[in-house]
Design brief:
mainly alpha; two-stranded antiparallel sheet; Muramoyl-pentapeptide Carboxypeptidase, domain 1
Length: about 130
């Protein structure tokens, strides 16, 4: 009986890990005790920045739950000098204000044509990642 309970717990832990690493699509509930995440910056041969949490350019970070895309966007905003607050994966008001300032800067300096809404979506991600805009 103890062995089967242990096996079930291991399977549940593995399933949770797989979901959490599923490209930023899995959301976990945010809490006041949310941990701050670290940013492991790297630049690809094509000149795109990555922070080690989400490698895509389509998932919009969530304002209501922790997501890999939220952590990634917060890390990249912080790297570029826009303060998103605590790197916690929840794209709240501080993160949205940082994203809005970034979008305004890209529109002003590079005629990016980004919607100035404080959301990091498929149009904003490439500007956030591309080292050309450093």
């Amino acid at each position: 009986m103890i062995r089967s309970a242990l096996a079930v717990r291991r399977r549940l832990a593995l399933a949770a890990a797989v979901l959490a690493l599923g490209g930023g699509l899995a959301l976990l509930p945010a809490s006041a005790a949310s941990a701050a995440y670290s940013c492991d910056y790297d630049i690809s041969a094509s000149g795109y920045w990555y922070a080690g949490h989400y490698a895509g350019t389509t998932v919009q970070p969530s304002a209501t739950g922790v997501s890999a895309a939220g952590i990634e966007a917060q890390c990249l905003l912080k790297y570029r000098g826009y303060n998103p607050g605590t790197i916690d994966g929840v794209f709240g008001s501080n993160s949205r204000a940082a994203a809005l300032a970034f979008q305004k800067r890209m529109n002003s300096a590079h005629r990016a044509g980004l919607t100035e809404d404080g959301k990091v979506g498929s149009k904003t991600w490439p500007y956030l990642r591309n080292s050309y805009y450093d």
